[in-house]
Fold Methyltransferase.
Amino acid sequence: MEASAGRARLGALVFGAMAAEAVFAAAQLRIADVISDGQRSCDDIAAEIGALPTALARLLRVLAALELLAEPVPMQFRLTEAGQLLRADQPDSMLAFVRMFGDPVMLSAWRELETAIRTGETPFERIYGTGFFEHLSANPDLSERFNAAMRQGTAVAARQVLRHYDFGAFRTVADIGGGDGTLLAAVLVNHPSTRGILYDTAAGLAQAGATLAKAGVGDRCEVRTGDFLEAAPPGADLYIVKSVLQDWDDDNAGTILAHIRAVVPDHGRLLIIEPVLPERVDASAPVTMYLGDLNMLVNLGGRERTLAELKRLCEEAHFSTASTIRLAPPVALSMLEATPR
């Protein structure tokens, strides 16, 4: 790479933090909802959201430079394909995701990344005096925003998961740490003879009733409140853990798997759905997966893992991994099926 190209690359990365703040501001101001399917002038948008037109124009042009908006004529803007994802009414909307991951609560610990690298500590716990999920439980509005962000990502992933795994082979499916039930609801909708157990903390389950009712599967899904670090619910022949192990260090992740092993029947299965890092950095994993690993370090004390590391956790919990499937982009997840031994 030539020196000039290198400078441009490094400069773009440093300014990336500012770009993220611009996107977060657009989400907070609901600019995409105002523009919708049309083309709107800066003055019209400003009047609708209660903003100063001269200041808003500067933000809109940044968003156009970031290819979230297009500016066909001066000071007239429409949404691009990517910009449409900031609308609340889109099926694959990322609005809740942007609002959560742009929130100061999520970002403040990143300012202590250097300290985390030197010490291995989780800065979030020092800044807020408690763990990430305990902080969510004490702040219902933030917890609801987090659950919404997880729901949006899970809804996209669920479509691929259903294509690659035969949930119909099981009588009862338990989703451990399943949040509002987005994934489990999709499984039950597609397999009418299957029953479900949704297991999470009270804060995690806060929106579960509405999700299950909307999907029409509330009568086939038992909602159980509990802590997967203390126990797993009996009664299922398939146990799912999606984007759960990454939130915890090896000791706690092993505890979660051990609790599942204690209740899974001999003929049962464990399905782990997680980001899986390659053994070395290559093009097979998006950069967001590596950034997600650092996010686990600063905010939760968890980590993303390689396939070998996940297999080792399974083996230590007396599971044997049977198969692995990497889901297609933009879903940066893999599925590992394991059997009890």
